[in-house]
Amino acid sequence: MSEFYEGLAEILEVEVGEVNSDLALDEGNWDSLAIVSTIALIDEVYDKTISGEALENCKTVGDLEKAVEAA
Amino acid sequence: MSMTAPPSPGHAVAARISAIATHLPDTVLDNDALAADFPSWPAEKILDKTGIRERRIAGLNETALDLGCAAATKLFANGTVRPDDVDFLLFCTQAPDHFLPTSACIMQERLGLPRHIGALDFNLGCSGYVYGLSLAAGLIASGAARRILFVTADTYSKYIHPRDKSVRTLFGDGAAATLVEAASGNTAGIGPFVFGTDGSGAGSLIVKAGGFRCPNSPDTAVETEDRAGNIRSDDNLYMDGSAVMSFTLREVPRMFRQLLDKSGTTVADYDYVVLHQANKFMLDALQKKLGLPSEKVPRRFEDIGNTVSSTIPFVLAGLMKNGKLVAGARIMMVGFGVGLSWAAATIAM
Fold first, then answer.
1. Which residues of A touch B230 (CB under 8 A)?
2. Which of B179, B133, B180, B124 is nearest to B153 (CA)?
3. Cβ distance B41 to B35 under 8 Å?
4. Given B49, B246, B289, which is nearest A33 (Cβ)?
5. Are B134 and B180 in contact, with CB atoms under 8 Å apart?
6. How high is the pLDDT of residue A1?
7. Cα–Cα distance, B31 to B230 (Å, whole number)
8. Would you say B191 and B346 are in contact if contact means Cβ atoms under 8 Å apart?
9. Which of B31, B126, B287, B345 has the fewest C-beta atoms lying within 10 Å of its C-beta?
10. Other beta carbons less than 10 A from residue B147's beta carbon
11. CB-side exposure of B332: number of CA atoms within 13 Å?
């Protein structure tokens, strides 16, 4: 998960140590640009294509990880 | 047995890009101005994420045709070609002066081009430059023309709602004029090409109202706010950034491999791979996915943004100016976007 967390830290503008499954995706950091960047990150790390809608509905980093597993 | 037609073998047409001139409108839209309108996106964040510091915006009465004519006028001023020498005009825009007549016909008169030339518009966005080169190469291969003025120009700013940061931060207005000439007795060649089209994604990047399917009306002018706080109406440009990113990551690597196969080349054979200059996060993602070293992927968007069909010639003009496109240099061009539409070509200078 570390490569994914490192990428997420950059996208969410937090320290990588702060990234864990419980970290909330809120209005402040989970905007359209963050979602587009996360699509690219998931493609890079997991070689999976995920839709913007699937990501929009995520509330936490844990939700993102579940969405990646389901993809 | 496959029902798909076998791919055309493709080959290079004996033609070359002999000159490029570019033009930008005067008005600058910088990140400080955007940050004042969108407080959640400070100027530094816009630069960090998009890689864009400023964009140029056409004047109220300045159209893509005007920008294109200015670029062509610069091309003629360079002395490479005279208006009398041009025998065909191609104009790529998505912001024409009128539904009819063809903007290229008006451009013929404005530029003082001969009356015996052919002239046509075509409506494509970020794939338009590669498509235009394929049309020019085809005209040259058929003997229909020898010296083609190919103009790209767009003014997406006129479609963009001022409160829609998803597109206002990215797109800039601009134009390029490219001279494509028949070549003989050297290594220069344009092609082969590969193309792709997926109309199921038409709604991913669209100005919905204004044509006959959905004429402008009080209803289409009704503004709505999306979940990210962006405001637009059906009269404005809409981009589903997620859908466009997914499409790009899916189709561009596939097209890249197709072109390598078709042209019998490997990445090592190319001096440069010139990608459509969408923005920093798109190019970073594509460059990683294609496994290309930074020095092979020239960039030009920090001071002009995404100029749609003119992004590739802006990069090429920069390479030419710096003496990087010497005879024998080989480049790949890759365009992708609105349509959805994509195309790539191999060019030997």
1. 32
2. B124
3. yes
4. B49
5. no
6. 55
7. 17
8. yes
9. B287
10. 18
11. 29
- How do B27-30 and B147-154 pair as beta strands? unpaired
CA torsion, points A69, A71, B3, B8, in degrees to nearest 10? -100
Neighbours of A47 (CB within 10 A): 8
pLDDT for B3 beyond 90: no
Report residue A43 as tokens: 């493609």
**Coarse DSSP helix, strand, coil percentages of chain B, rounded to the nearest 5 percent:** 35, 25, 40
What value of ipTM does the predicted structure carry? Answer: 0.88
Domains annotated for chain B, with CATH where assigned, are: 1-349 (3.40.47.10)
- Indicate if the alpha-carbon torsion angle B196, B271, B176, B26 is positive or negative: positive
Largest CA distance in chain B: 60
Sign of the alpha-carbon torsion through B307, B310, B313, B318? negative
Specify whether B126 is catalytic. yes
Each residue of B270-297: pLDDT tens digit?
999 999 999 999 999 999 999 999 999 9
Q: Among B166, B240, B281, whose Cβ lies nearest the Cβ of A40?
A: B281
Distances (CA, A) of B167 to A28, B48, B55, B155, B157: 19, 16, 12, 13, 9
Cβ distance A32 to B288 less than 8 Å, yes or no, reads no
| Cβ–Cβ < 8 Å for B128, B308 | yes
Give the pLDDT band (50/70/90) at residue A33.
confident
Token pair listed for A48 = 């999976």
Is residue B116 annotated as a catalytic residue, yes or no?
Answer: no
Give me the pLDDT at residue B228, please. 82
| CATH (residue range A2-70) | 1.10.1200.10
**Cα(B19)–Cα(B149) distance, integer angstroms:** 10
| CB-based contact B131:B345 (threshold 8 Å) | no
Question: Is residue B206 left, alpha or beta, with left meaning phi > 0 and alpha meaning psi from -120 to 50?
Answer: beta
Q: Which of B200, B242, B280, B288 is most worth mutating to test chain A (most A CB atoms within 10 A of its CB)?
A: B242
Contact A38, A64 (CB under 8 A): yes
> What is the 8-class DSSP label of residue B210?
S
